[in-house]
Amino acid sequence: MLSRRDFLKAGTAVGLPCSPLASAVAQALPEIESSSWCACVINCGQRCPVRCFTKKGQVIRIETDNSLPDATPSPRQLRACQRGRSMRERIYSDDRLKYPMKRVGERGEGKFERISWDEAVKTIADNWKRIRDQYGNDAIYWQYCSGQQSIVSSRRAWQRLMNLMGGFLKYYGSYSNAQLQEALPYMLGGRPASLPSEIANSNLYVLFGNNPSSTRPSGGGKGYQIDMAVTKHMPKVIVIDPAFTDTAATKADQWIPIRPGTDAALVAALAYQWINKNQVDQDFLDKYCVGYDEKTLPASAPKNSDYKSYILGNGPDKQPKTPEWASKITGIPVKTIVDLAEEMASTKPLFVSQGWGPQRQANGEHTCRAISMVPILLGQIGLPGTNAGEHEGNTPFPAVYLPVGKNPVKATIPVYMWTDAILRGKEMSRTTDGVKGVEKLSQNIKMIINSGGNTMINQHGDCNWTDKVLRNEKDLEFLVVCDNMMTPSCRYADILLPDTLGPETVDMACQGGSHGDVACMLAIQKAVDPQFEQKPSWEICRLIAKELGLEDAYTEGKSQEDWVRWCYNETRKKVPELPEFDVFWKDGMAKVWNRRKDTIALEAFRKDPVANKIKTPSGKIEIYSEALANRVKDWTLPEGDIISPIPVFYSTWDMPGDPLEKKYPLQCFGYHGHGRIHSTFHNLPRLRDVHPDSVIMNTLDAEARGIKDGDKVYIFNDRGTVLLPARVTPRIMPGVCTIPQGAWFKPETINGQVVDVGGCINTLTNHRPSSLAKGNAQHNILVEIRKA
Ligand SMILES: Nc1nc2c(c(=O)[nH]1)N[C@H]1C(S)=C(S)[C@@H](COP(=O)(O)OP(=O)(O)OC[C@H]3O[C@@H](n4cnc5c(=O)[nH]c(N)nc54)[C@H](O)[C@@H]3O)O[C@H]1N2
Ligand SMILES: Nc1nc2c(c(=O)[nH]1)N[C@H]1C(S)=C(S)[C@@H](COP(=O)(O)OP(=O)(O)OC[C@H]3O[C@@H](n4cnc5c(=O)[nH]c(N)nc54)[C@H](O)[C@@H]3O)O[C@H]1N2
Ligand SMILES: [Mo]
């Protein structure tokens, strides 16, 4: 189809604009429907092409990737899900931020007044200089924001500007998988993962807390590839998850419900069975691993600190990890554990993967390593049809993003600890709070820039507590929030900035790290003007840079469009199979298939462990990690926290065994459901209609509380109360309940009590971090439920 721009160009070429016909054509132009390419850049981990049809300066319809003949096997179409296709609803949402605003009430009250861009820019520049001069760059923080994942006009623009201003306090880890990211490399030298297509070579595919049918939704992306691999060879599929998820329902031959936070206990019992039945792959453990038994334990390790001793009850806790022991902890019947052990030991190749639900817990660093113990103990690593226990893998793609420059600030904090750094940054150190880069922080956080994220409140732990932290203007002095929508985080802004959305600006996107076998570049073409005074992040930062006297350094003489082209061409230098920019731009996307050649995790290591050492200190798989033991030797841990060099199970706060259990007997966690990506898309009525929020609870738990399906209930603990309808079903194990994470926090006073009527799970979560990564243990909650 001819676009409006092509039409205009063609017209100009034949001299139309001067003729009487030209004015008639010019008048008719807005009536002509035209199409352009855009991309959904919200962080589900994939990125999808969306096609915008516009007429009269409005987006009238959205389609997705239908750019190839329907039956093309490869490169296939990348089909956006229901959320990606809601671009039009997002653009025209009543919640859009329209103008720059300044806070007029108390912080958090949500009272704002429209201001000019000049005033917004000047206020930001003045406060930035003041805070930097008074407290130093270490007092300025860039907030974790996963919502805007494009290449130029995104967080990259903000970080570029922040570095030009002398830098900022950084974070490490992520809300996605902080525990796993920090712990797994001690064992595996990184996060090796086989491509989804490798599942087709397995005979047994076991997923621990992994729900790709919901969390990898793009058609043509990873979820689709897993489907294809499963259907190709039909391995037996077992899903281990507290909830009967879409993955369990549509892919699994068996669903094994498990209590949250207890996977390491299940694995220990499986190990117990394999050791006692001589089913472990002893040759593999001897040759490729450190610390399975005494033979390969590092010299520095205490006696009986090896994994085998731990399992058999010869370790410090003297507890044999029998199926009976594990059954009480996990809630899984003894026979199911015994049968699972037998099935895994006898069915090879075995492909084990984990989602990030199991690790988003207080003991998550141990859980994620424990899950990897399954393929390690059975020698199911580095061979066709196997995986090393991580999420199904992806194709690394060296896309070049807008350069952000260098950040001279050395200090880095765990991503979950920014509220602590506001309150007591100067007390935070390497040994108490996992600070990296420096021994101790020199400042509390005084200023935050938050663009494309809702973690200022909604996505962070313990909303009611966070609300109190943010309200104190003496602690956090200045907060800039930039978004498309009036989110709960926006309510706390001192200056609130309206960003453009989708086809309102020019940009580009690349695969998001969860694309599985395919890699792609996607064009974001400007098709409509912003309706109000929204500006792209690139432009907002340019204006602030200008005010700060940094414009030339910020732009380097290039426009936003120039940078898009530059980033593409730099990427193309690394990926020569990409077409020229103009071809890419016309096609709207460029897909690269089969780029990754090493499709099996640790294949080279398996073939030759001497020539292809993994990146652990010994070059082997470290079941016992001496490096980890050494790193935390001088750490001070809060009571109840454990960091073990081997992946042990331990019960900790806000799970069964905690004295709080008497008051709050139900385990609760927030899952990543179809209705949203986190909090994005929450405000779209159509999606809310199709995926209404509720607390999903077991029939037995509901009966015991006189609750019927559809009843409104209070879900509560010492941190807060949430009001939601109950969904009563046997599709979740007894004693456990779950709420889709991401609903917008909306506290209201009901009968003198503050209740979150928005249904945000983080009203109930703890801001206390996990032990090693100091990560977000947001799946770790005890609650009680009663009828409202
Ligand atoms: N539709 C949709 N897709 C998304 C997102 C979204 O919000 N919506 N978010 C994206 C992002 S940023 C991320 S990081 C990923 C998140 O992906 P994940 O972290 O993998 O998603 P979760 O739903 O939190 O957890 C996966 C499963 O773990 C189960 N689970 C929870 N605790 C335990 C446990 O202790 N043991 C076991 N065995 N299972 C447990 C849950 O029931 C759930 O089915 O998803 C991405 N994809
Ligand atoms: N209890 C609990 N909490 C969780 C999780 C959980 O499982 N349980 N999951 C955690 C995980 S894995 C993650 S990744 C985080 C995600 O937390 P966030 O990174 O905060 O993600 P979102 O909630 O999607 O917020 C993204 C924001 O970006 C905005 N946005 C979208 N496009 C643009 C744009 O073009 N410009 C600008 N300026 N803004 C834009 C959206 O409107 C939205 O407000 O949440 C974490 N929080
Ligand atoms: Mo995430």
TrEMBL record:
Species assigned in the record: Turicimonas muris
4Fe-4S Mo/W bis-MGD-type domain span: 33-95
InterPro entries: Anaer_DMSO_reductase (IPR011888), Asp_de-COase-like_dom_sf (IPR009010), MoPterin_dinucl-bd_dom (IPR006657), Mopterin_OxRdtase (IPR006656), Mopterin_OxRdtase_4Fe-4S_dom (IPR006963), Mopterin_OxRdtase_prok_CS (IPR006655), Prok_Mopterin_Oxidored (IPR050612), TAT_signal (IPR006311)
Database matches in Gene3D superfamilies: 2.40.40.20, 3.40.50.12440, 3.40.50.740, Dimethylsulfoxide Reductase, domain 2
GO CC annotations, alphabetized: outer membrane-bounded periplasmic space
GO molecular function, one term: molybdenum ion binding
Protein name: Dimethyl sulfoxide reductase subunit A
Key words, A-Z: Iron, Iron-sulfur, Metal-binding, Molybdenum, Oxidoreductase, Signal
SUPFAM superfamilies referenced in this protein's UniProt entry, alphabetically: ADC-like (SSF50692), Formate dehydrogenase/DMSO reductase, domains 1-3 (SSF53706)
Pfam families, sorted: Molybdop_Fe4S4, Molybdopterin, Molydop_binding
